[in-house]
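Hello K.,

You asked for the raw outputs rather than the summary table, so here they are, unedited. I folded two proteins back to back in the same session to keep the settings identical. This is the first:
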Amino acid sequence: LLTESACTLPWLETAEAVIEAGADCIQLREKSLSDRELVDRTRRLVELARPRACSIVVNDRLDVALAADADGVHLGQDDLSIEDARRQAGHSLLIGVSTHGRDEAEAAVAGGADVCGVGPMFAGRTRPDLEPAGPRRLAEFIERFPTVPHLAIGGITPEHLPALRDAGCKGVAVSQAVCGSSQPGEVVRTLLAGLAVHAAEQV
């Protein structure tokens, strides 16, 4: 989750580093940019990432995702509904939805979300208003929806990977641990290596 104010390095340098390290998706999360700035930044990321098989997702803003030819949009519980997003975008965009419990997860899956953010796993700066539920919530999601793609989210660092792996985690969404590092690429490599251990154990 890329937010300029959270970055130790310049935001574009951070993006370049994580793409080089093998991140397969960047979610642009900017709450204070003007619409024009947000569209321009999304387009820059798409131009940088798409040739290297990294997707670009826009947080909250379906209109920006469509205007900038992004790969997807990620919707919060107070954003546009999945139904309304599909009405405008069809299946031209992947739609992710944040979920913070069983009821929200049920609604997101029933609504046709392509991926569910499941959290918060741990205390983090992005949503300090939410009570962390820990890997137990992820394990419950996977048990209930074993075929629905998920991203564990919320205060995740490389040190948390063993507990997340034990819960069955196959993907993570990370903000501060990556953006806040002076070596964001190295953090991404560590995260990917930890997830690869899980994948190898499942073979």
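The second followed immediately with the same parameters:
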Amino acid sequence: MKAEVVSGWPKDNSIRISLSETDASQVNAIRRALISDVPKLAINRVNFSQGVVETNGEILESVNVLPDEVLAHRLAMIPIPTYLDEFMFPEDDPNNENLPEDQWGSPLSQIIYHLSKRGPSEDSEETLVTVYAEDLNVLGETKLQIKDEHKRIPITVLSKGPYLELYAYATLGRGRDHAKWSPASAVTFQPRQKAILKNATKAKVLFNLDLKSKSGRKIESGMFKNKECTDIDAVIDLEKALHQVGYGTGREEEFADAIVLEEIPGEYVFSFESDGSLPPEEIFNKACEELVARFEKISGEIDGALA
């Protein structure tokens, strides 16, 4: 299998990759590994402060509009910056050896975040205060602070009187155990295609619609060279544009399949989005590493059984 990032990608957290010399089963194995096997950090445990406190003569109570379980789930789904080379799974941490699981925790396998937020003061004109992901403060290296792109993820709201204080603990895990540990979403693949210009005159039915892709590319005859278009992004844009001259548009007879799409054997277009905890290139490479390790283990077990 050969893999190559399509020109112009990744775009933010999205990536498009061209895979060749492969088949659908191998590509699907990568898809499953991306979702289930690539590890990432996520908040796995939350300790909520309970009780009543007095601040500047005001009585505040740790009562929230959402149950603690819902708040914990929302915290778990916030993308945590992940550095796989610097952390290990809690069960592999030597500091956790011979300790019960509820006492696990060391800088090698755990990150701690603190959140302390109160509702509007009694004399404030505001009636509600929104608690965001940016209110989580890491107790450690600043590079582990919630990224700017995720800071405005809302967690809950506080009215006058309540306050929220908690400690959240993030550890490594895999998506097969819980969705919070899955670093990728919208994971899809499709056979790579090329567009064939069979009738330039009738193709004007499409070109005269003056369509443009999301990236601003104009759907026109200039996309073709020697009556073929093989650029991956351009072909995908053409595939979407062809819906404007397809069945039910009233243009299908006039267009008469002037442009057709043909699959390229053994090649696929693979795409997905990172949640932002890991760069998309690293997620893909890690998925391939996970697959290699798994098949090497299986091969070793087979060799041992047949020895």
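The chain is about 25% helix and 30% strand.

Happy to rerun anything if the numbers look odd on your end.

Regards,
P.
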